[in-house]
Design brief:
The complex is a heterodimer.
Chain A (H helix, E strand, L loop, with lengths): L1 H19 L2 H26 L7 H19 L2 H24 L5 H22 L22 H5 L8 H14 L1 H11 L1 H6 L4 H25 L15 H11 L4 H23 L6 H19 L19
Helix pairs in contact in A: 2-7, 2-8, 2-10, 2-11, 2-12, 3-4, 3-5, 3-10, 3-11, 4-5, 4-10, 7-8, 8-10, 11-12, 11-13, 12-13
Chain B lengths: L1 H11 L4 E10 L2 E11 L3 E7 L5 H9 L6 E6 L2 E3 L4 H6 L2 E4 L11 H6 L8 H14 L15 H14 L4 E5 L7 H18 L2 E6 L2 H7 L2 E6 L2 E7 L5 H9 L9 H4 L2 H23 L3 E12 L2 E12 L3 E5 L6 H8 L7 E6 L2 E2 L7 H4 L2 E4 L3 H5 L6 H6 L7 E2 L2 E2 L1 H14 L16 H14 L4 E5 L7 H16 L3 E5 L3 H7 L2 E6 L2 E7 L5 H22 L1
Parallel strand pairs in B: 3-8, 3-9, 6-7, 7-8, 13-20, 13-21, 16-19, 19-20
Antiparallel strand pairs in B: 1-2, 1-4, 4-5, 9-10, 11-12, 11-14, 14-15, 17-18, 21-22
Helix pairs in contact in B: 5-6, 17-18
Classes of the chains: A mainly alpha, B alpha/beta.
The complex binds adenosine-5'-diphosphate (ADP) and magnesium ion.
Chain lengths: 321, 542
């Protein structure tokens, strides 16, 4: 595995010059980072409440497929995105209810949901094709003419810019509302929260809903905000939800760190896409595995237990201490 | 009779809350059996009883954490059902929990706000915390992280959290077990205020006679789930309470530590001092058996043992005193071969332990009575006999197979010697009472003639009889030449048993006292120094 990574990194290193000056590279990295950030912001909220919510992947897939179908049917972008949000919330409802009401293991539920939703989207797609056209990039005058990064920052399709309110919203919810205080308390010490009169599992379910809404929106933005590919394809989400979880771990359960993680992983997704375009020949499978390899390494290095919510992934039952 | 009139006046007042015939069973155990209890406004009501008497269960029923099987609760003249802590809070019942209601990762003001319904407003919340703190003389910095506070300050936060909601009924379950003597005194002063000036009803739960006598107006004594006596505090004496609580006549002097009456220990001490000094001189001449030298253990970037040095001589009991959570558990783990030293050494009779290897301490002849006998001491599902030979299975094995006959014979021998009450050597360990479980652990550890015996909180959760037995055994072990290290948060126990006392704080030894110079005041001051330290650093931060 190290050898594989070595090869990849070596070829990457030789490409650094080209990549650094490639406007397309920045544009693509930014897009990946933003899509990841929607899901990661939601996942961050759920994890602060104590759920390691791996069905974030299913939430993204649901959002992506539903948005694509809705866009095909109505041709209205905001409506399509809203449908994506709803789809994410529906998946979240199932996850939340099964893991925090019926007390089924959250990982079992999450894994099952990921496989089920992926299969369902595939099946529906074969019957009822999700057609989309492409949202044209909104180019901000003057700013987008800044060399190299102008296009990446100020020339994205407009749904991408929804990340600008979403991230502060997540932060505000968690740090500036009573709900957020309760979210943090149930993630860190559910017994204490319970004795203090907080409905632990209710708050955890709600946090998963927030994750579902954000991830569903992320899925919608993923299909509607692409420049090149139009429409939903199976494998489109392609484990980006899982990478979003890695970003939260990389960020040490802070929102700022999580966003930095998204940028890092976004860069590697872009690299994997851009290298062939720039004329570098590397094995496609190898290149495709690059972001996941990096995620694996990064989580191994950064997953320190000291900063994680102390009750992360622990189910809560009253009376058990 | 002077109290008669006053008493009549008090009963004319309606009780703040009344429990009627409350019963709670856990399987065969009846934790509460038809308990009646009335808490009056303007009174501190002491609830006294040995460990396991059912005090906590009764309080949990009142706060909605446990549902009673039978009985009713009357509040303000009507029956109420308290489903959960939320309902209790709405009815004006608040509880100061010992461990369970603060979130370490949150700040003081966030914790105080947790669970109420007012608007989420940081500056208003901080102001309210400071107002409540000032009103009751409970100084605290609202912006500190609770995880960084000492146990005493955490309890202060609990109290503020509770009082800010203006409860009619305030429950405190064993509140002084995490406090230094100075902090306990301050708590009682606050309770006086709360009761006298604001007419709240307070329930103070404790198994310590002295503090019940000192801080309450009225006493209810529980034994095995039943109320066995009620009296007004002015009419009670230490010996009448002790007899009612234990259910037989007890000698206040010999059981002083078990009953939690330190001042009596001190009386005794004055007399014993002269003999002790002579004995201490004799002990001082003996060789050092256990030598812990600058032991350092770092966990998650925090030094849980910080250059800790303790020496124990043959035939000596060294008591390690300290407020809970200051490295005692880690010290026990170290001597149980459960943690690896980052630096420093543990030497027994000149042989250095290779820490980190399983069983390295046992090899050197260190026997340990662990802090939590369920966690690391014994296997609940195995039989008494199996538990007794668990760590020396080789001694009863032949050709790699356990010789059951020999194992049972050995077990019977130990059961007789240590007077272990069980259905037989094949009875599951889990079926034994706490005191008998502790005897099994003791028998096993003393069974292989250790050179060092470590007893970590050996009497926690035991009843008075079992505590006395344990103390006698530890004393006898020392007299037979074993070096005994007693780690305990109970000052009374430390004072009664130790030849020498070291005080531990944040993984370090911060003071050492000889038996002759140790009194509860001096020990309290040393422990209190820790509290001051916290206060000072808090002041700096502010
Ligand atoms: N959750 C529980 N499950 C089973 N037994 C319990 C439980 N809680 C308490 N008990 C038992 O009920 C009895 C009373 O316990 P408790 O109320 O904690 O006593 P106290 O607080 O007076 O020490 C004890 O015998 C204890 O073992
Ligand atoms: Mg109790």
């Amino acid at each position: 595995m190290i050898a594989v990574l070595g090869v990849v990194l070596a070829s990457a290193a030789s490409a650094v010059g080209d990549v650094l000056s490639s406007e397309a590279m920045y544009q693509s990295a930014m897009r990946f980072a933003i899509v990841l950030a929607f899901a990661a912001a939601g996942e961050w909220v759920a994890e602060r409440a104590g759920t390691l919510n791996i069905s974030i992947e299913a939430m993204m897939i649901g959002g992506a497929y539903a948005s694509a179908v809705a866009f095909g049917a109505f041709d209205i972008v905001p409506l399509a995105l809203l449908v994506g949000v709803l789809a994410g919330v529906v998946v979240a409802l199932v996850q939340a209810h099964l893991s925090h009401q019926l007390s089924i293991d959250q990982f079992v539920v999450g894994l099952t949901l990921n496989l089920f939703v992926l299969g369902l989207a595939l099946f529906l797609d074969s019957k009822w094709e999700a057609v989309t056209s492409v949202v044209k990039p909104t180019r901000l005058p003057v700013l987008h003419d800044i060399p190299v990064v102008g296009e990446a920052l100020f020339g994205q399709p407009w749904p991408m810019y929804l990340i600008v309110p979403v991230v502060p919203l997540a932060w505000w919810l968690v740090f500036r509302t009573r709900w957020g205080l309760e979210i943090r308390s149930v993630g860190d010490n559910p017994q204490s929260a319970d004795v203090s009169g907080i409905h632990v599992n209710r708050r955890r379910r709600e946090s998963i809903m927030v994750a579902g809404a954000f991830a569903g929106l992320g899925g919608g933005v993923l299909v509607l905000g692409q420049i090149s590919i139009a429409g939903y394809e199976s494998g489109h989400v392609g484990l980006k939800g899982i990478i979003a979880i890695a970003a939260v771990i990389f960020g040490g359960w802070t929102l700022r760190g999580t966003l930095m993680g998204c940028v890092l992983f976004g860069y590697f997704f872009a690299l994997q896409q851009t290298l062939p375009v720039l004329g570098y020949r590397i094995n496609a499978q190898l290149a495709a595995s690059l972001p996941y390899l990096v995620a694996l390494l990064v989580t191994a290095v950064f997953a320190t237990r000291t900063r994680q919510p102390r009750a992360l992934a622990q189910p809560f039952v009253r009376g058990l201490t | 009779m002077g109290f008669g009139g006053e008493g009549a006046g008090a009963t004319a007042l309606a009780p703040a809350v009344g429990l009627r015939g409350v019963t709670k069973r856990y399987g065969p155990v009846v934790a509460c059996a038809g308990v009646d209890l009335e808490l009056m406004p303007g009174e501190v009501h002491g609830i006294l009883g040995e460990n396991g008497a059912g005090k906590s269960t009764l309080m949990k029923i009142l706060i909605g954490l446990v549902q009673p099987d039978e009985g009713s609760i009357e509040l303000g003249g009507r029956d109420v059902v308290i489903h959960d802590p939320q309902t209790a809070a709405a009815l004006g019942i608040g509880m100061v929990h010992q461990h369970l209601s603060l979130v370490e990762a949150l700040t003081v003001w966030e914790n105080v706000l947790l669970g109420d319904a007012s608007r989420f407003d940081r500056s208003a919340a901080r102001r309210q915390v400071m107002e409540t703190a000032e009103h009751y003389g409970l100084e605290i910095d609202p912006d500190r992280r609770v995880g960084d506070l000492s146990a005493g300050l955490r309890q202060r936060v609990e109290l503020i959290k509770c009082l800010r909601r203006d409860p009619k009924i305030l429950i405190l379950d064993e509140p002084t077990s995490v406090l230094t003597p100075g902090e306990s005194e301050q708590l009682f002063t606050t309770l006086r205020d709360v009761v006298a000036a604001e007419q709240r009803a307070v329930a103070l739960v404790s198994h310590k006679l002295a503090e019940i006598l000192h801080a309450t107006d009225r006493i209810t004594i529980m034994r095995q789930g039943r109320v066995v006596e009620r009296s007004r505090t002015v009419e009670a004496t230490a010996s009448s309470l002790a007899t009612a609580m234990v259910g037989r006549h007890v000698n206040l002097r010999s059981s002083a530590a078990a009953l939690g009456v330190t001042d009596l220990v001190d009386d005794e001490r004055l007399r014993a001092e002269r003999e002790a000094a002579a004995a201490a001189a004799a002990v001082a001449a003996r060789p050092v058996v256990l030598d812990i030298d600058r032991a350092r253990v770092v966990h998650d970037g925090v030094a849980v043992l910080d250059d800790l040095s303790i020496q124990v001589r043959a035939g000596e009991i060294v008591g390690v005193a300290g407020v809970e959570g200051n490295g005692q558990r880690e010290l026990g783990d170290l001597l149980s071969s459960l943690v690896t030293l980052d630096s420093g050494s543990v030497v027994v009779n000149g042989r250095s332990a290779r820490t980190g290897r399983a069983g390295c301490m046992a090899e050197l002849g260190i026997g340990v009575i662990p802090e939590d006998r369920h966690d690391s001491g014994c296997v609940l599902d195995l039989s008494v006999a199996e538990n007794l030979v668990l760590d020396r299975i080789g001694s009863v094995a032949r050709l790699g197979l356990v010789d059951r006959k020999r194992m049972r014979a050995r077990a019977l021998e130990l059961m007789r010697e240590f007077d272990i009450q069980a259905a037989g050597p094949d009875a599951p360990f889990g079926s034994l009472s706490g005191g008998n479980q502790q005897r099994v652990v003791l028998a096993r550890e003393l069974g292989h003639d250790p050179t060092v015996l470590v007893a970590a909180q050996p009497t926690r959760g035991l009843d008075v009889g079992a505590i006395e037995y344990m103390s006698g055994r530890l004393r006898a072990a020392a007299d037979s030449g074993i070096a005994v290290l007693l780690v305990s948060t109970e000052l009374e126990e430390i004072l009664e048993l130790s030849d020498r006392i070291v005080v531990m704080s944040r993984g370090r030894v911060i003071g050492e006292l000889d038996r002759a110079e140790a009194t509860s005041e001096r020990l309290g001051l040393l422990l209190g120094g820790v509290g001051d330290d916290h206060d000072r650093s808090r002041g700096d931060a502010a």
